[in-house]
Backbone:
């Protein structure tokens, strides 16, 4: 049976064109949506990167501040160490090891030390000198004391030495006192006590001495080496 199509060909072509245009429009919309999504994703990532960069900058600034504070603390520490060493040199003009070596060098044969005490004190002021000082002189002394207190106070300290030991007899104690009195480090060597002490049926003299370290003592490196070498030799011989 013969079929007859009464729809015009132009109408059919127009419908196909509309469907094609609609499909192209849908594809275009999809492409635009994808582009907009990609753009938004890139923008979000950029903002996240900027935020991270800001955090990194803040951390770097804090780290730089911490490094600067650490450097300042190190500088203060070095300054404090330098001040401490300077103060130690002022307070202890003669190292204790050198002082002990000098005491050991002067030991007579058979004499040994049992106790050694070092005490630093300020010199006592006599009441007569204080009473005789006028107000003007007192003001001048006070003014100079303020300016020189940081250095001169340490230099004015006196080092008192208490020595205790054992000796065969009083002759060795007297010889030890004579040697200490003639030493370049000791001054005002006096005998405090000397009494008899027995150990295993052997009689010794237990003595105590007092002395002072000479003021303005300046030892060179050669003097220190000589004193320490003499101490090692005396210990070896003993």
Residues:
């Amino acid at each position: 049976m013969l079929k007859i199509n009464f729809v015009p060909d132009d109408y059919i072509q127009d419908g196909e064109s509309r469907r094609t245009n609609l499909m192209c429009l849908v594809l275009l919309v999809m492409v635009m949506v994808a582009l907009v999504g990609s753009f938004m994703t890139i923008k979000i990532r950029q903002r996240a990167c900027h935020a991270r960069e800001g955090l990194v900058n803040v951390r770097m600034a804090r780290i730089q501040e911490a490094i600067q504070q650490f450097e300042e603390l190190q500088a203060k520490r070095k300054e404090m160490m330098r001040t401490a060493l300077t103060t130690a040199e002022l307070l202890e003009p003669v190292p204790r090891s050198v002082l002990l070596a000098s005491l050991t060098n002067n030991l007579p044969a058979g004499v040994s030390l049992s106790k050694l005490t070092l005490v630093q004190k300020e010199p006592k002021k006599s009441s007569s000198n204080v009473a005789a000082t006028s107000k003007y002189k007192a003001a001048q002394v006070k003014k100079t004391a303020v300016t020189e207190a940081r250095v001169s106070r340490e230099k004015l300290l006196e080092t008192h030495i208490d020595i205790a030991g054992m000796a065969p007899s009083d002759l060795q104690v007297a010889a030890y006192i004579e040697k200490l009195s003639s030493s370049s480090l000791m001054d005002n060597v006096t005998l405090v006590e000397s009494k008899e002490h027995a150990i295993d049926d052997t009689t010794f003299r237990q003595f105590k001495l007092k002395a002072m370290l000479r003021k303005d003592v300046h030892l060179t490196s050669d003097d220190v080496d000589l004193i320490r070498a003499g101490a090692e030799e005396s210990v070896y011989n003993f």
